[in-house]
From TrEMBL:
Domain named Deacetylase PdaC: residues: 73-170
Entries under InterPro entries matching the protein: Cu_amine_oxidase-like_N, DUF3298, Mao_N_sf, PdaC, PdaC/RsiV-like_sf
Coiled-coil region: none
Lineage top rank: taxon: Bacteria
Alphabetical UniProt keywords: Signal
Secretion signal span: 1-40
The keyword Transmembrane helix is annotated on this UniProt entry: no
Pfam family, one: Cu_amine_oxidN1
Name of the protein described by the UniProt record: DUF4163 domain-containing protein
Alphabetical list of SUPFAM superfamilies matching this protein: Copper amine oxidase, domain N
Amino acid sequence: MMNNRNLTYTRSRKHTVKTAAAALMGTALLFGAAAPFAFAAEGDAPTAVPIAVAASVQPHAGAAQLAFRSVQQTTDQLETDMQIPVISGMKDKAYQNTLNANLAARAQAAADDIAKQAKTDYDADNGSYPFRAYGITVRSELLSDGSASAGGILSFRVYTYIYTGGAHGGTIVTTYNIRNAEHASPIKLKDLFGSDYKNVINRAVKAEIAKRPDDFFLSTPFKSIADDQSFVIQDGVAYVIFQQYEIAPYAAGMPEFALAVPGFGAAVPAGADKLPIAAGGKTVAGAHPYTARGGVLMVPLRPIAEALGYKLSYVASTHKTFVSRPGESAFIVNGSNRYASAKGNNHASSGGQASFALGAAPAVQGGTQYVPIDFFTTVLGADVSYTKQAISISK
């Protein structure tokens, strides 16, 4: 089975890929049942068999599940390998049924389109070169399962890989973000980042591109996200996704930009900035939080990080403060609302980093370096809880 995160292929016959993309990027929901699967390719009709699939997110109580129906067929013209996602376990069954109809219809539309194109090109082949069968592959990935622990958010994406000859095909990603409630509803970026969401996200994307300009198109610089920009949500982070070739060359794949979703974690209670902080099971002496502009709770970095087993180091040449322990590291730049984490302890490398915006930049108060408390949850993966007596941070 293909690794969904590494579906990075180059388009060969762009007109075919764009046509299939139009079929995939159509209406978000189709009302009514999906029609039976139909294929223009010659040969026996493929079978659709329900098969359980391991979800990317382990099921929790009240969680939705992602399975798939397998549709496979091979002819001289077309190789079809579709695992059409099927969602179950949603609270709103009517919405779930419509969603599944939409997923099936999109897959069918893409399959019909590529089958028609394959037949046309196959019939037109004059034998001057061997005809290589076209192909369509569909895979999906669950990011958030709609359970209470996922904030009631159901988020998944569907990858459609289309091959029309040549060295490579092209992959299109379609994303779904839904509030799993008795009356389910789609989640939009505006719902997560407010009415000024475009400016918030554009600033984050431009800041990240500025760090790695050679990885992106220079002749057509990024200006703004689209009204229907693709994104997924996982563990309180929104990943804004760009299609292949949208803002970067083939080698960059599908660029993703991570932004922490405001207010996703445990709600910060009133008066939290007056509470003592416990980290690693012990009270952190001298750890006095404060509330920054916008209501962001700021906490001292060094004493909390060290209590959790991290070591801090400062690299003057890059103005970065690194927070690391065996197997993981993160860094901050004072005054910059960009926080990065990476596997391993290589301070010099930027490979494999995830970058986040957390609502406020690191700041120095009274000679102490402060960061948003979300730095510990979103970047370092720690757990934060609040009681009337203290703020508890553990990992």
